[in-house]
Write a structure and sequence with these properties.
43% of the residues lie in helices and 13% in strands. The strands form three sheets. The protein has a four-stranded antiparallel β-sheet, with no helix packed on it. The longest helix has 26 residues. With 314 residues, the protein is of the alpha/beta class. It is built from eight helices and nine strands. Helix 1 packs across helix 3 and helix 3 packs parallel to helix 6. The protein has two domains: 49 residues, no CATH class; 249 residues, no CATH class.
Length: 314
């Protein structure tokens, strides 16, 4: 079997284990010697290596992948679409506890959503936030690529996991798009709304509504969780306010006659109810938030500058 060594010198063998100490991008030929050893043939001759277990998120099917797999490097792109080099090994190791805790918090707050994500998400990799946002892609179905800022907490990882994992779920759910759409799913949303600077398709906006509803449901439940620190509650409220405002706009754009089948409308109904029930319950505390200056990815630093923690609602 031929393998390519990743940028961090690691070779990952799914279902078997991994080994390191090799040159990046080196091509090796392997032969399995036993349940945890392989014979390696390369330019420097033959050697043996012991396989280490591949880190997993407990209670899930997700690999906690520190290295950017050679087949996945091409998906890291900056906003303009050009390829980007990102740091993953250090970031994943640094935030591994937060990822595990994020799954745990989700299990305590939205057990059904946790069960679906624990089954559907097969790979979690963390890279340093900057010019590459968090993402998921159908071309690597089951993988989520999370961007971590210096001040990110477990709450941020919960939201990001639900966001990107939600894209994985929505992609799987909509394999047969005719079940949900009565018009071509790739219809430009600008043609429907008349908003000239709208770049998404109807399908991408539907994805957005689905993931926003999942995040709203999760953040709303997190605020009911006993034991949150004041900082965690403050951040949850800020993230909920930002996602809620985006969901209002996205639902208005897609909830138009003649676009969806009964099944598509059923999904949108649940998304709308998640938003309405949250707004009805938390109207006053969300209305008091100042979300001015928030970038695409929520910034707690920007939020707390306009919403000091000492002034947070009880």
């Amino acid at each position: 079997m031929s393998v390519i060594v990743d940028d961090d010198g690691v070779v990952e063998l799914p279902g078997l284990g991994q080994f390191d100490g090799n040159l990046a991008d080196e091509v090796l030929n392997l032969r399995r010697l036993g349940h945890n050893r392989v014979l390696i043939r390369g330019d420097k001759g033959e050697t043996e290596a012991a396989l280490r277990p591949i880190p997993m998120v407990p209670g899930t099917r997700a690999v906690l992948a520190g290295s950017a797999h050679p087949l996945l490097k091409r998906f890291y792109c900056a906003n303009a679409g050009e390829s980007a080099i990102v740091e993953t090994l250090i970031e994943t190791r640094r935030h591994s506890r937060s990822i595990i805790e994020a799954f745990s918090l989700l299990a305590r707050t939205v057990p059904l959503l946790h069960a679906h994500l624990a089954d559907a998400v097969r790979r979690v990799t963390v890279h340093r936030a900057g010019h590459v946002h968090s993402f998921a892609t159908p071309a690597a179905h089951g993988a989520v690529f999370l961007a971590a800022a210096e001040d990110d907490t477990d709450i941020g990882f919960v939201e990001d996991l639900v966001h990107q994992g939600g894209h994985v779920l929505c992609t799987a759910m909509t394999v047969d798009r005719e079940v949900f759409f009565t018009v071509p799913a790739e219809t430009p949303l600008a043609d429907i709304t008349g908003i000239v600077d709208e770049t998404r398709s109807l399908y991408e906006a539907f994805h957005g509504v689905f993931t926003e509803a999942a995040m709203i449901l999760t953040l709303n439940r997190l605020l009911d969780l006993d034991g949150l620190t004041p900082r965690q509650a403050h951040e949850s409220r800020g993230r909920l306010g930002l996602i809620g405002s985006r969901a209002v706009a996205d639902l208005a754009n897609v909830c138009r006659p003649g676009l969806f089948t009964d099944e598509g409308l059923r999904i949108l109904k649940y998304c709308r109810l998640a938003l309405i029930e949250t707004i009805d319950r938390r109207r006053e505390e969300l209305a008091a938030l100042d979300l001015t200056g928030q970038p695409y990815a929520f910034s707690y630093a920007a939020f707390v500058a306009r919403n000091p923690l000492d002034h947070d609602l009880p």
